[in-house]
Design goal:
The complex is a heterodimer of chains A (133) and B (193).
Chain A (H helix, E strand, L loop, with lengths): L2 H22 L2 H5 L4 H38 L8 H10 L7 H5 L6 H17 L7
Helix pairs in contact in A: 4-6
Chain B lengths: L10 H10 L2 H15 L7 H13 L11 H22 L7 E2 L5 E2 L16 H17 L4 H11 L4 H8 L3 H15 L2 H6 L1
Antiparallel strand pairs in B: 1-2
Helix pairs in contact in B: 2-3, 2-4, 3-4, 4-5, 6-7, 6-8
The chains are: A mainly alpha (133), B mainly alpha (193).
Chain lengths: 133, 193
């Protein structure tokens, strides 16, 4: 065992032993003269604050999930004609992400064009900093 | 790791369990936080405990149903300090990294953090750990018996076994343990002075 591994093990052992000793100590010794009501009040304050912060995180996570689900579910082809879709794909042909597909535009089936159009629009929605429409 | 939702507590169950936790157990959690945060850059014991509570209540860290809440807090704080040690060497780390029970990391899974036993340590951790161990023993320099007890703990011994190893009777050991507890539970404040 090298010195670094020894330090890690010592710290882990100290952490675990201190924890087990605290559990073995009486509540009175652990509180060491502090009133239980004072400790509990401090704990509940911290819990309240943590709950508020956790709520903000959960809300942000839910919003992000909802946005992702909306983008995944959007039908970008709903009001777009085949010609409009082809024109759009040709327009983004200079974007490195779409060049290869756009080159094959003339050889594609109509359904394939619409599918590609949907894919491009979805990619752009998920990554607004990419190609502008 | 388990994928079964029934095996882990929901955030509201975690909140209820924390609310019901005794004052003495909260004090134990505070003391562990003060000990664990000592030597970590920009982190107080309160920061560590608060951050751990936020992760549990937001669902970012799973809480196995079969564990006592104090054990959950201890294990989660241990994992948080490992991340904090990485930050103090490497700068900010990706908070979304999920720590799996087998010690491997998985990115982009913000709800996969576990409080099961973990080993995410890196060589960089050891540098900070070395500083922490050094700091702890320097704080005990004026108390030979407390130092002996801490050395036994660092070797993985505790209770009667530790007392026998360092040649202290149980009464002397208990008194030294009490002094050691006071030192360890104020380590984070001492570090910041």
């Amino acid at each position: 065992m090298n010195t670094n591994e020894k330090f890690m093990m010592q710290l882990d052992n100290l952490f675990e032993s201190y924890f087990q000793e605290l559990r073995a100590m009486s509540d009175e010794d652990v509180l060491d003269g502090e009133a239980p009501s004072s400790v509990k009040a401090r704990a509940l304050d911290m819990l309240k604050s943590a709950k508020a912060e956790a709520g903000r995180i959960r809300l942000a996570t839910a919003r992000s999930k909802m946005q992702n689900a909306k983008v995944a579910g959007d039908d970008f082809t709903a009001n777009v004609s085949l010609e409009q879709a082809k024109a759009y794909i040709a327009q983004v042909a200079n974007d490195q992400r779409f060049t290869l597909a756009a080159r094959k535009l003339g050889e594609m089936q109509d359904e394939e064009v619409m599918r590609l159009y949907q894919q491009i629009r979805r990619l752009e929605s998920e990554n607004p900093s990419g190609s502008d429409s | 790791m388990t994928n079964d939702k029934q095996d882990r507590m929901s955030p509201s169950e975690i909140e209820a369990a924390l609310t019901q936790m005794s004052a003495a157990d909260w004090r134990r959690a505070e003391k562990m936080a003060q000990f664990a945060a000592a030597g970590l850059l920009g982190m107080t014991g309160d920061d560590l405990l608060q951050g751990t509570l936020v992760k549990l209540l937001s669902g970012k860290r799973r809480c196995p149903r079969e564990h006592h809440m104090l054990v959950v807090l201890k294990t989660a704080m241990h994992s948080e300090t490992s991340n904090a040690r990485k930050r103090s060497i490497n700068g900010p780390i990706d908070e979304r990294v999920a720590v799996m029970a087998d010690g491997s990391d998985e990115s982009d899974e913000p709800h996969m953090l576990m409080v099961e036993s973990e080993d995410t340590r890196t060589p960089e951790d050891a540098i900070v750990a070395g500083n922490q161990v050094d700091f702890i023993f320097r704080q005990l320099e004026d108390d030979e018996e407390a130092t002996l007890v801490a050395m036994a703990w660092a070797d993985g011994l505790r209770g009667k076994e530790a007392a026998e190893e360092v040649g202290l009777d149980m009464k002397t050991y208990d008194a030294a343990r009490k002094r050691l507890d006071r030192k360890l539970s104020s380590l984070a404040q001492s570090w910041r002075k």
